[in-house]
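Replying to the earlier thread about multi-chain prediction with a worked example.

Input:
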Amino acid sequence: VRAGDVRAVSRAITAIENRDPHAEELLAQLFSLTGRAFLIGVTGGPGSGKSTLVDRLGAKYRVEGRTVGVIAVDPTSPFTGGAILGDRIRMQGHAGDSGMFIRSMATRGALGGLARATADAALVLDAAGKQIVLIETVGVGQDEIDIARLTDCTIVLVVPGMGDDVQSMKAGLMEAADIFVLNKAEREGADQLEQQLHAALEASPRSWQPPVIRTTATTGEGVEALTAAIEKFRARLNTSGEGRARAAAQWQRRLLAMLEEELLESVVTASGGKQALEAIAAEVAQRKRSPYDAVRALMTNNTPAGTERR
Amino acid sequence: VRAGDVRAVSRAITAIENRDPHAEELLAQLFSLTGRAFLIGVTGGPGSGKSTLVDRLGAKYRVEGRTVGVIAVDPTSPFTGGAILGDRIRMQGHAGDSGMFIRSMATRGALGGLARATADAALVLDAAGKQIVLIETVGVGQDEIDIARLTDCTIVLVVPGMGDDVQSMKAGLMEAADIFVLNKAEREGADQLEQQLHAALEASPRSWQPPVIRTTATTGEGVEALTAAIEKFRARLNTSGEGRARAAAQWQRRLLAMLEEELLESVVTASGGKQALEAIAAEVAQRKRSPYDAVRALMTNNTPAGTERR
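Result:
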């Protein structure tokens, strides 16, 4: 993985997806090598041209001599076959380029864990020496906002005339955006959408006002302006200290999520496993027991305070 | 609350929204009175006519002599002022009818806790003697699917020509639906959308094949067919034992969520509170410490195994 070997990186990400117990061990070993990549999230609805834009961005960074990793996340698609096929097609444009790595993340129904798996995959690409990691997500749910929040820079794509006007934008996505990209900017309604965006941004001013960059990803128009905007944002993250604060806040959320998972597993195991929990839940459903009482009983199986009380 | 007093019920729900410590005590006291209401979730995108349909359903149940509670959840709207105004306007149609209660749930930014708050509000309405509780949500994110999963019957609204065709339907929502409502059925594209739905349903057969009911909520057309479909589904839940299994599965998820919250709070407190956690997160962000090591250290502050190890 450290040497950037494509097959090793691929296997590591598969292990993460499959929640292979060795994955954590691997991540622990690689962790000290991470923290160097710049993570860029690209979020937009189906048909907004995300993949095309990500490919353009990736190609641009490659021309500049930077190594690039791409993680494509689509929680709306429960199947991975198509995604894997898509990866192959996308990789063909970069055949023989070891500086470019493209990978789709499978969901395998584990929607809740997708943000964590994506973050871990990004760590692998970081350790493998990728300088830029592009994370591509469909911006339709809370999960995508969670993924957007784990990047250094979040780009939100909007497209004229797709019903995704500013008002119907998923709550939280507007706030998560560092840069807006108005893609398919040649379409009718682009000016109106740009005005709407600016109006919404002015209504809630922030220390960094996200720019709105107009692109036509299919032709590559505007991609240069976009990379310039990303660089400007990155420079600001570094000089203002906001980059450091952002990383610390992200790690706090990740530590809490990891802790939550471990704690829950440990309590459920100590309480007699899943079967015991099912029996308790059935009792609560039949109103034989209150949920508050049930939670208290489960807690005493695992906290020091509870241990004393026993 | 037990007597169904509007102001008492209202205050109880406000306490739940505000995470008032007394709310849990109240819920614990009311819990044994719950489990009698039938919870119906109505989920659909903005502009799909959810509120109108819910009002029609509520009015229909009132005519039948059943008491009705309505909880309207809109996580896309961060403001509650409008929602409260909306409640007043909606209640005007039921002025003086103590058998009808309508309430919007405020999000207050606590998006993650919205499903729990909604479930708790439904318990209050259940204890207050409401026989039917309608829960209205915008079906755009994971949170709404979580809410849909806490009801006895989930109705998913689709509307022709709004871009919300079957393919772009949020993953998980299709699976969560017990009944589909094709609202604004007089519009162009209704037949095509119905065909798409049937095709998608046939592609993944289940023990209960969700019917597709065509309605025009504004005129009330189809509402009778909808209540009949709901009754049929309810009867099946009871006779097949699936209702019991569903309730047990729901309580298992809720117990886990409650447990998670309590455990996390207890560990964070035992580890020195939020400030200590922030310091650890900053160390991880600066790669001075691995996240796996940090989580292990936090865990030892709270598990019996960890206590022994110290």
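The CA atoms of residues 213 and 225 of chain B lie 7 Å apart.

Feel free to reuse this layout for your own posts.
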